[in-house]
Here is the input.
Amino acid sequence: MRSIYEKLKLKSEESEFDIEDEEEFHMAIYKELDGKASPFEVEKFHEQLDKELGVFKNGEKYDYLKDLKEAYKDSLKTTSEEKIFSSIPQHFFWDIKRPLQKNPGVRLNRYNPFRGREYNSFFDMRDAEEYMER
Here is the structure.
C-alpha cells in the first residue's frame, strides 16, 4: 500500500479519496504522521515553526512586567519635551525674522548710511519703534 504522499506525487493516478470528503483525507494524513509512515517528522516541523514564529524561547514564560518594558522601551528613552517637539511640524518654527529672499540686501542706516546697520535684529527694531512712540 502506498502512502498518501506517494499517491499525491503520481499525477496520472487518481486519488482514492473524494475531494468533497476532506475529513477522511485529513484523518489519513494524521494516521500516517502518527505512524511514522511519512517522510516528514512532526517534531522537526514544530521545532522549525517555534524557531520562525515562536514568541518565547525554550523554557521561557510570559512575564507582564517584561512585556511592558519591551513594549515601551523606545518611548521611555525620549523625554516629554522631545515627544512634543517631534509632533509639531517644522514650519511652525519659522520665525518672522527669517528672510524670504535668498540674499536679502543689507539695510543701511536711514539717517546716516556711513554708520552701518540701523538695527541688528527684528527685536532691536521693535524696541526702537517703541522707544520713539514713548
Remarks:
- Residues 95-134 form one domain.
- The longest helix spans residues 64-77.
- The helical segments are 4-9, 22-34, 42-53, 64-77, 80-87, 122-133.
